[in-house]
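It is worth pausing here to work through a concrete case rather than discussing structure prediction in the abstract. The textbook approach is simple: state the sequence, then state the predicted structure, then interpret. We follow exactly that order.
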Amino acid sequence: MTYYDSFYARVDIPPPGQFVAIREWLLALAKPKWPKWRLRLAADLLCELHACRPNPPFAVPGFEGRGLCVEAAAYADLEKRPERPFQQVHFQLDCREGQWQWRAMKWRWHIEGDADRIAAVRTRLLTAFHIRQFDALGLDLLARPACLLCGKLLTDPLSMARLIGPECAGTAQQAGSILWNLAGDKQPDQLVFH
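Step two, the predicted structure:
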């Protein structure tokens, strides 16, 4: 297998944590717009992940995403291409026959880059999935506090605790404990704020 083939090869990973449940809930609600989840994996590594709608006949559950490695990574770097050196890897996640797989789709760099740096970003992204970094969702994982269902900025403590904004919380009642437990093991009436 050549270096090129191994870079783009499918790699088995564990399910991407709570995002699978959120994706299923968004499908059930038939929301017109799905959020992009922007996550901080390290001080220099951000990850943007969003669910893909089923597209028959290839209706496998899936996500698309990108990892951005840049010094002192900030949320704005995902909005607009940074002017400082960066490396970026776009990837796809899908579940075929019960097994989740990760696959690099494309890559790019700005100013400083080479195959080794791009491969290092790929490895760091894969490691985040293998160590199940996405299993416990909390404010520390988000690049900024945003609703997991619509992507709007969260400003009040209750919304930040449950990671769901007030508008979506009203429509999320039927989702029950799946969504309420995203931020931990407590139900909404057990959350205490200081």
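Step three, interpretation. The CA atoms of residues 13 and 44 lie 23 Å apart. The radius of gyration is 17 Å.
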